[in-house]
Amino acid sequence: MKTISLNGAWRMREARTDDWHDALVPGSVYADLMRDGSMPDPFWRENEHIAFALMEKDYEYTRAFTVTEEELRHERLILRFDGLDTLAHVLVNDVPVGDADNMHVTWEWDVKPLLHAGENTLTVLLDSPLRFVRAAAERAPGWESSDATPGFRHLRKAHCMFGWDWGPRLPDAGIWRDVSLLCVDEARIISVLVTQEHADGRVALALAPEIEGAARPWTATVTAPDGQVFSAENGRLVIDSPQLWWPRGYGEQPLYTVTVDIGCDTWTRRIGLRTLWVSREKDQWGEEFCHIVNGVKVFAMGADYIPEDNILQRVTPERTRRLLEDAALANFNAIRVWGGGYYPSDDFFDACDELGLMVWQDLMYACAFYDLTPEFERSIRLETEQNVRRIRHHASLALICGNNEMEMFMGRANEALTRGDTHAFNPKNHRHVADYVKMFEYLLPGIVQRLAPQTFWWPASPSSGGNFDGPNDAHRGDVHYWDVWHGEKPFTEYRKFTFRYASEFGFQSFPCLKTVESFTEPRDRNIFSRVMERHQRNAAANGKIMAYLAQTFRYPSSFDNLLYASQLMQAEAIRYGVEHWRRNRGASMGAIIWQLNDCWPVASWASVDYFGRWKALQYAAKRFFAPVLLSAEEEGELTQNPKINEFHPAPIERSIRLNVSNETMNEVSGVVRWALRRPDGSIVRGGEQPLTVPALTAVWMDKIIFDDASLTANFASFEYVADGEVVSEGTALFCAPKHFEFADPGLSARLEGEEIVVSAKAYARQVWIESDDPDLLLSDNAFDLNVCEKRVRVLRGSAADLRVRSVYDIG
């Protein structure tokens, strides 16, 4: 089958005007207008509202293309759009071909009767998404997130393009994925279902092609990573001594290439040989929820992924790959694709396959009640079938989830209706509750189970299994926990819960100064300025950051130090949760941080900002997601008296209880060393203990009580040494950092080849290294340092003009 690309140079204009612009496809109205200077950068200051208003209008894209006599001799010439965003009318040689209304669908029309040899024209008319959602909201009101433009739930378009509590309202339009002309004769392969049976050290593969058109004989081969070729007979083959695919940290990620050939078309994809399911066994803590890969229970460690940019043309395979490589570098083994964006490209899944990142894939429904009209049902059936067929072969695909947070909200509405109270969500005559049940208990799971029978289905996130049966239950299923942050509870609150699988929890911070400078003028650089608040989409969040800061640090001496302090708080908050859950492996089996990335420069929960710059949290994640982790459950002022500004007459215990978590497939043996220290780093007393930790377990040590320790003038240090190397280390305070009596650490940094050597003359907490290059990436940062030198490798960027600071320097 021949494919003719129709990407590249197009022309674009506002509909019914003569103002033409050069355009690039794949692309969008915003991208094209920005390219020639017709629209200012929507991320700069408050320019967002200028771009938003442009989507009240309709737009037209057009291009000429040539068809040869030879191409016209093919049986069918199929015009294929891999992505139209969103309300589109397609014309060939000024003749209407078809209409599109779903961004998540691939659209195809046979246009051979409309083509002629020589030059032809292709036109795409795009209707205003804002006028559509406004009219739909007036016609059929219903509950949806108030962070987005009203009516967004009526349009199958990435919801976050209409705004979210971390993203701008920039509902762009365009031809956002590839366009091509397919020359088809007789038949083509739509997809191939590959299923696996693992037994007795062998893997049996069954291949079932879906062929469109005349029935044809087909052949299939599977090529191993070492080049060995296996041929299928009657659609089946057996691989002896298979090389199994594992999540990152548990083994390698070998990929086998499957090729199915029908003569006139070929289908080639890479697969991993593995079993991957979710265990929901009953146990002493309730009902577990954990990934089982090749029979091994895996602790999921990762973050939630959102669209990488509001200007979709900027999302390239290279950019996506770097973001996922940065996740892998920080010891992630899992990524959750959040349901308010769009289905990622094949490049995303290919990278996850190669990097060993398990993918939790939400279907694209989030925080809204949908009207299951016949037209909507036809659209979402097509959307789900296409995307499940596209991604089902990937080794990294761990589960498919119905939606984000809808069972939780719908469950509340259902309870309200049962009580006769319809005020809160106003679902008319139980319609939305009934539509929810049809969509997520019957229609969508039926499609997934039919097309991807070996992929685990989960109805919602959070959920305990569906049917409004206690979604967000701490003892089963997955949980979204927001009492720390939204509920303004202290970081120590995490330690009250051993969630079975935390799929959302987070804490906000500001990006670094250089990122703030990308959208502000100097006069804007106050967190309560209008521009800074426009780049903060969570109501009252800047005030929450300041409230937490008041509990944690001294008042920052500069705007830059405030940004830095916010990142340190974010890292500390999430560390409290993750380390606690890893210490309780078995009761807890998943920690997925909200969120990995940003779609524009903003204050948010992201650990990597819009420009790909690591915040302190991403560096902290590299440590607390490390395969072998030594951590401390300390007791002190914060754990026993969170309201640290109130008088507390009872004596406060000062102690640590150490734990080593081993998330590897091998036993680890080493020595745990601890010390009680003074602010200058000198040791009051210390000790050590040999410790062997079996594979895939967490081992507690006895509590160490420091009766002689000062709350504010002593701290504990600890390290785990195996094979002569420190594999994990940390420190613990017994009071808030603002109350600790830090000595001046006299920090210095020098560059030696590709390494930075950092020196401290006293205890330094959360040491931050930076240079004039804001894209500098290091092997470690935001770390604690005793009186010693530490060598840090430069991984990316320039280390010229180094600067270094710590908590001591905040204010």
Could you walk me through the main structural features you see in this protein, from its secondary elements to its overall organization?
The structure is a single chain. The chain is an alpha+beta fold and 811 residues long. The chain is built from 15 helices and 49 strands. It has a six-stranded antiparallel sheet. Strands 31-30-29-28-27-34 form a six-stranded parallel sheet. α7 links the parallel β29 and β30 (397-401). The N and C termini lie far apart (67 Å).
Average the pLDDT over all residues and give the rounded result: 96
Q: Helix tally?
A: 15
Largest beta-sheet details = 6 strands, antiparallel
Distance between the ends: 67 Å
Shape: globular
Q: How many extended strands?
A: 49
Low-confidence stretches: none
The helix/strand class is alpha+beta
The fraction of residues assigned to DSSP E strands is 25-35%
Rg estimate, integer Å: 28 Å
Helix content: 10-25%
Main β-sheet, spatial strand arrangement? 3-2-4-10-7-8
